[in-house]
Backbone:
């Protein structure tokens, strides 16, 4: 069996580890445009902050490829898939044959078409190790850094460079920070916290143009800067699959076995759309845990084990200047709310189910809430009032608790439902 | 593989397991001296309410969500035991978001901590099990 994986990040690792559980002899080829050993993308901000280094950023140890017998083609980009020949064509013209192919191409930062942007000298995106190194090299003392985007990437970037004696200004079209994961109230708490750390915000504002090293906002405010960071969002890399007629929406469409619409081609990670079980909607959930679990699911199926991953939900854990935020699911329904100082907890529930939650500050045991969403636990089977106040196993019935604590039970979110058919 | 299991019927709610856990991770010889005036931060934690109590620690799940979701690769399952490389952990707490048992917690230095069955500190039976005065916490094989 010849396995080919396009991409060398989280989903690829998930796939490799799963494939090698079932198939020790097949060949695995990994194609990656970056020349690095697999590293954790979200750690680039911690690298700038000095909380990690390139060695510790490695998502798996130095012997990973060797141990899992992977052939690497790094620094190479897959240009297209030749469907009739079952080959991936690389940028150097090389053709790599596959029996089963995983597309784990991730996403790319969006560069907005703003007039004058081309003339800005020091502009950076912030998703790769090379991005981080380039940004770091461009910074100097008292540099005025303008970050477009107050989402996860923009704010982690802000934190990452905050120790470098730079002035940070953040502009976002949305009226609040972290608009994809926080509601108004949560956003207010975080915005104040960030302002206390000297980050300046222009929210609900759009940059309409650049006049040299000055950004012009829609209300005519001019913001002079030395270094520009573009963090307005990412777009799934879908072209390889779209070009051969595979079903694609914003992301590549996959089923619960991570199959695309094309036989023998699987997809996983940030390039995909999948079902959010907290809302029932199909969406891009570009999150590292989902990338790993989708990659794993793809790898299982590619190596002949029928395996389903159907419990994906949006979920985020993020720390900013010492304040921790954990969120998951969908913010709809009735609300349980508590707040104290800079802390906040909001649980959203309806129809006997927990739909989502936002916790800022005291994140202790938050995973118990996540599990309620993921498992769609009927709230009338637990002491909901208690669990709202105090997440714990106490809220479950004695029987459920005995099951959870007393024996080995499979809390799998992917369910193996077959036996290996590859030796 | 042997794991730590709790039987809430026998749990007295004495919290000694928490103290033994905290002690095990101090590397000290004398428990009283090691924990004197210390606010302990154990990896096994007792839940209690209305006369019911039980201790909760890592289940070392067959399909560990904390390991799968770990953004750094600091959490790994090695020989059935989920361990954390504290040098790699950057304290993002994705594992706390993921763990359905609430068995992972932040440590004082920001990295996470969780039960590692005392493999890094002691040989043999985990200290919470040894210290439980009523046999409510056991270390045994129950399948898998």
Residues:
């Amino acid at each position: 069996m010849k396995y080919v994986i396009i991409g060398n990040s989280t989903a690829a690792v998930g796939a490799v580890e799963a494939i090698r559980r079932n198939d020790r002899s097949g060949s695995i080829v990994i194609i990656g445009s970056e020349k690095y050993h697999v590293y954790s993308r979200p750690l680039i901000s911690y690298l700038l902050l000095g909380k990690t280094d390139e060695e510790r950023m490695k998502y798996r140890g130095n012997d990973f490829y060797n141990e899992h017998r992977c052939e690497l083609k790094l620094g190479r980009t897959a240009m297209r898939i030749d469907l009739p020949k079952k080959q991936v064509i690389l940028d150097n013209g090389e053709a790599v044959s596959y029996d089963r192919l995983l597309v784990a191409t991730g996403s790319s930062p969006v560069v907005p078409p703003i007039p004058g942007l081309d003339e800005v000298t020091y502009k950076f995106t912030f998703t790769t190790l090379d991005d981080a190194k380039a940004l770091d090299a461009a910074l100097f003392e008292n540099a005025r850094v303008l970050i477009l985007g107050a989402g996860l990437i923009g704010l982690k970037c802000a934190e990452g460079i905050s120790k470098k004696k730079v002035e940070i200004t953040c502009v976002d079209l949305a009226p609040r920070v972290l608009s994809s994961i926080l509601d108004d109230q949560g956003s207010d708490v975080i915005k104040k916290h960030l302002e206390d750390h000297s980050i300046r915000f222009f929210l609900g504002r759009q940059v309409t143009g650049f006049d040299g090293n000055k950004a012009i906002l829609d209300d005519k405010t001019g913001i002079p800067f030395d270094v520009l960071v573009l963090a307005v969002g990412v777009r799934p890399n879908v072209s390889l699959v779209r070009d051969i007629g595979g079903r694609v929406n914003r992301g590549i469409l996959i089923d619960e076995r991570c199959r695309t619409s094309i036989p023998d081609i699987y997809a996983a990670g940030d390039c995909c759309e999948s079902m959010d079980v907290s809302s029932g909607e199909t969406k891009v959930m570009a999150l590292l845990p989902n990338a790993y679990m989708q990659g794993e699911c793809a790898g299982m199926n590619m190596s002949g084990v029928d395996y389903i991953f159907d419990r994906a939900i949006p979920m985020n854990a993020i720390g900013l200047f010492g304040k921790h935020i954990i969120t998951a699911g969908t913010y709809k329904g009735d609300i349980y709310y508590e707040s104290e100082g800079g802390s906040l907890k909001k649980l959203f529930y309806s129809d006997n189910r927990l739909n989502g939650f936002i916790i800022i500050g005291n994140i202790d045991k938050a995973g118990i809430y996540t599990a309620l969403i993921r498992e769609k636990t009927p709230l009338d089977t637990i002491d909901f009032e208690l669990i709202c106040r105090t997440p714990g196993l106490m809220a479950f019935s004695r029987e459920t608790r005995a099951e959870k604590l007393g024996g080995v039970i499979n809390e799998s979110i992917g369910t193996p439902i077959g036996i290996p058919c590859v030796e | 593989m042997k794991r730590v299991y709790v039987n809430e019927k026998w749990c007295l709610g004495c919290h000694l397991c928490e103290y033994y856990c905290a002690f095990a991770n101090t590397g000290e010889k004398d428990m009283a001296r090691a924990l004197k005036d210390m606010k302990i931060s154990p990896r096994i934690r007792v839940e209690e309410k209305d006369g019911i109590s039980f201790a909760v620690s890592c289940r070392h799940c067959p399909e560990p969500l904390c390991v799968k979701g770990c953004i750094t690769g600091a959490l790994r399952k090695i020989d059935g035991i989920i361990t954390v490389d504290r040098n790699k952990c950057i304290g993002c707490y994705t594992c706390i978001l993921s763990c359905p048992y609430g068995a992972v917690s932040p440590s004082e230095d920001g990295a996470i901590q969780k039960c590692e069955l005392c493999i890094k500190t002691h040989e043999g039976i985990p200290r919470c099990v040894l210290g439980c005065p009523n046999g409510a916490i056991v270390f045994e094989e129950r399948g898998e």
Summary: Helices of chain B lie at 16-24, 31-35, 65-69, 94-98, 127-131. Chain B has a mean pLDDT of 93.
